[in-house]
Amino acid sequence: MNFNKINDILDLPKEVGTDIPKITMLGFNEVLIENYKGILEYEDFFVRICTHIGNVNINGFSLKLNQITDEDIKITGKIENIDFECR
Amino acid sequence: MILKNSTDFLNGYIQIQVEGFFIERFVNSCAKENIRLWRTKKINQSQIYTNISIKDIKKIRNIAKKNKCHIKIKRKRGLPFIIKKYKKRKIFLISCLIIIGLIFALSNFIWNIEIEGNINIKTEEILAQLNECGLNQGAIKYKINTNKIIEQIRLENEQIAWIGIKLEGTNAKVTVVEITEKPDIIDKNEYCNIIANKEGIITKINVTNGTAAVKEGDIIEKGDKLILGWMEGKYTGVRYMHASGNVEAKVWYTSEKYETFEQEENIKTENTENKYSIIINKNEINFYKRLSKFEKYDTIETNKKFKLFNNFYLPIELKKKTNYEYFIQKKKYDETSLKQKIADELEKQMQDNLKDKKIVNKDIIVDKNNKGLKVRLIYEVIETIGIEEKLVL
What we know:
The complex is a heterodimer. Chain A is built from 2 helices and 6 strands. Chain A has one domain: Immunoglobulin-like, CATH 2.60.40.2000. Chain A has a 6-stranded antiparallel β-sheet with strand order 1-2-6-5-4-3, with no helix packed on it.
């Protein structure tokens, strides 16, 4: 709560201080998830990623983990749908 | 992405295959350890391909052990591996370095000297002079002081008005401007005669200043005085002056030639052959073994210098000899055709002499004997003669 107020005053992006993931989709072939916790499942057609507020499921074909660091993960491939499991 | 890829390439990376049941856990722990994985691809249930940078390979082995995965190195890519590969091939590397060094070393010498702009002075003469001053084939470039050479040559050679030396690559370009010899112009205030510079018959004489020494119809020799630079008066005595006037004379130009009725003529066939040789520092190496297969031939030689890039001349020359075959044909002329032929040839020769001049008469004299003809071509031309000559008192 306190942090939200500071964020409002300083006009910082919300994902910087908090644990909220930022999901960016570029076209239908690329998803970038920042502030993630870890990979739960990885198959050619299904990627399940754990974040602090819930899970992200990505369905598609020939999915690749293009870039993995401890802060963000980039998934490329033919993405069919993305759904969320709120905790 | 290109930038990132190129940095990956420069740093070097390894493509690995990871096999195990807990691959997700392996990937997660890699992320936790700050190991960057990229282009991760699942092949089947228990195998993935991924890329990893060189420095992380030791860490990843420990992680794999913990997660009970097996790692297989599939491919090594990047600059460090290429360098490693060529480290073993020392001779290749050394020869590369030698070639680069040679090019640098050779580019410090002058390999070609071009001289242009000279008409009367022979190229060899200028070259010899340049050699004396230190600019010769094989001279070291930075030791050449062009200003000094220019000064020295201008001092020695009085025919040269201006000389410029330009060093371009291994090429020295020498530009020469010659002094055009002007006739001695005598000052208006000085006394002079007018004398003949050709022999002929005077047709017209016009004196504006001075005393006429000849009259129309006089036959004059070369060097005869035409207009005298003084005047004699009864009371004034001798008065010297700058003679001037216009003198026209009939002048004859003759030329003659003797040719026989039976002549041998060289007729070129279309057969040619090329022979090559290489000249390295005045030593010639032939690429051909046999002499020419033609019985009679003309040879034309052309030299070509090798050069790298634009103006990096090498001390190697390619000499090309082209042989043109010809055969001899006997030809018989009759009197009129031979006369015509010789007259045409003579006329061509004299064309230069007769430029811009008024031709009055043309005469052809033929002497015949039993073997051939002697043809004499005479042109009668009217032209102004007379040059100024200083009066020495």
